[in-house]
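Hey, can you fold this one?
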Amino acid sequence: MELCDAAGLARIAVPNRAMMGHCRIYVCDFDAALDDMQQALKTARRIGNSHAEMFALQSTGLCLTAAGRHDETAEIQAEALEQARRLKARRYEAIILALCAERALVAGRAAEALSLVRSGLEASDETSPGFAGPILFGLLALAEPSSPAQEAALSAGESLLAKGAVGHNHFWFRRYAIESALCAGDWDAADRHAKALLQRTAPEPLSYSSYFARRGQLQACVGRGAASESDARELSELRSRAAAAGLRMDALGEAMRQ
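Sure. Predicted structure:
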């Protein structure tokens, strides 16, 4: 009886530990988040819970991607994707494909990223578009080569957010939308998406969203040619604080501009 109780508690603790790691991402406590996810992974493997193992793996990949540590994600995401497909966990397959697409974009493989995003959207449409759909549409805006296709992707992502989507979509979609606007030189759009992200977290500001929103506002100011010395100093200080927190804030943007 005690062994059964212990196993049952472990099955409950594994996703809870991984979810705690997810929460830590948005306060930029990446090392603690990764520790939570690794502990969840070890427990899942010890008790033989395949679904919890897959969830811990995709959580680890998500955390590393959020931090801009794309060079550490390839093997983790490949294993997570294989397990998600074996378990027919299409919702998680969609978000893993999104993370793989961001890695491809950072590596300069736009065609591969576009293919991954489209596969992710197919999986998302078959299950629950509100789980990862806006994330995928944000990435689609970065991967599509034409302006009309990019605008359509952003519109579709915002439409899903308006209908009601899982909370993580707001962070990821707006980050991608800001980047898309900066790449296009659409400074007003960058400001609009930054403002939307800040409004979303206004009752409880979170450092992750604050970093990316303020970066978007300041880079839009630079893009307009209206940045003051104070703005330039603030942007430099923002980058320094993000780096100290373990956040490679410019990883995706720098890759997109190469």
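Residues 107 and 156 are 26 Å apart (CA to CA). Let me know if you want another pass with a different chain boundary.
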